[in-house]
Amino acid sequence: MKSKTQGYIFALLALTIFSLQDAISKHLASTYPPIFVTMIRYWAFGLFTVILASKMRGGLKATARTKRPALQVARGVLLSVQVVLAITCFAVIGLARSQAIFSATPILIALLAMPILGERVGWRRWTAIGAGLFGVLLILKPEGDFFDVKLLLAVLSCFNFAFYVIITRLVSRDDSSTTSFFYTGIVGAVAMTLIGPFYWSWMSPGDWGWMALVCMTSISSHYFLIRAYDILDAAAVQPLTYLSLVYASVIGVTIYGETLSSNMIIGSAIVVAAGIFTVWREHVVGRRTAAANN
To answer: For 169, what's the count of Cα atoms within 13 Å in the CB-facing half-sphere?
Structure first.
């Protein structure tokens, strides 16, 4: 039996590598189109999913078998759009502030799960949702006389990723996680290949090295995340994902010269606390429902 300690190590490795990947993506997106960067990244990721699927029981044919093909395609497209939006946000908004806004995603997922998945939300989670949205408003609060409309791009990214997670929950009722992971890589690679060549840019030899590193971090981070989910459930992994905000803040301030306002720090703390409570409460309710059905 695999130890939970090993699962936490895999999760921390995945999150650390994801943060490095975001930092490098910001560097590349400051010079090259985010769609182009995403396309190259997806080529490596798509190849990884094919190799992984071919080693599974039944091979590619069994892994690609799905009962929800339309939703699987929608998932893949949404995630590829999400990567483009996130990289763009890192370049134009900054790592720290982007990740601060992205922290609200679990709050939005809880909000959208009601009309789409038919989930019931009690007063405790409603309170957490309200607090989390208040925290987001603090993060978005104008620091000068004018509101920075670029921040709305990060909000759009949040909603996009929330819909991706909701659809992933829907397909998980019929398809295995291996099948969903396969379509994530393949559909994203195809979608980006259809669009990316129109944004092709000739990169300097040094930047091709950075791009190669982005591809390697993309593969290794997803691999470690898969290993983490093999051992831990989502409720155990989710709170750790807020480390991305800490990493982004440190990297943004020390390497890219970003600044952290008091509103952003306070708002982030509120959003993270509300998000952790929302995930925990959802886990508790899920366990009670499962126990009642047995």
So the answer is: 15
Q: What's the full length of the chain, in residues?
A: 294
- Residue 114 near residue 282, CB atoms below 8 Å: no
pLDDT in tens, 54-75: 888 888 888 999 999 999 999 9
How many C-beta neighbours within 10 Å does residue 126 have?
14
Please give the Cα distance from 48 to 25 (Å, whole number).
Answer: 19
Task: Report in angstroms the alpha-carbon separations of 118 from 109, 110, 275, 287.
Answer: 12, 11, 20, 17
Mean pLDDT of 206-226: 88
Residue 234 backbone phi and psi in degrees, to 5: -60, -35
d(CA 235, CA 228): 12
Q: What is the pTM of this model?
A: 0.84
Give the Cβ contact number of residue 24 at 10 Å.
Answer: 17
145-151, long-range: CB < 8 A, 24+ apart: 148/93, 150/92, 150/93, 151/93, 151/97, 151/101
Burial 72-106 (b: 16+ CB within 10 A, else e): bbbbbbbbbbbbbbbbbbbbbbbbbbbbbbbbbbb
Q: Are 80 and 132 in contact (CB under 8 A)?
A: no
CA distances from 214 to 18, 21, 229 (A): 9, 6, 22
- pLDDT tens for 219-253 read 888 888 877 877 776 666 777 778 888 888 889 99
Cα separation, 3 vs 17, in Å, equals 22
For residue 144, give every residue at least 6 positions away whose Cβ sits within 8 Å of its Cβ, in sequence order, or none.
none
Tokens 């559909």 — which residue?
Answer: 187
Report residue 93: phi and psi, to 5°: -105, -35
CA-atom Rg of the chain in angstroms: 19
Q: Residue 7 has which token pair?
A: 């699962």
How far is the first Cα of the chain from the last one, in angstroms, to the nearest whole number?
25
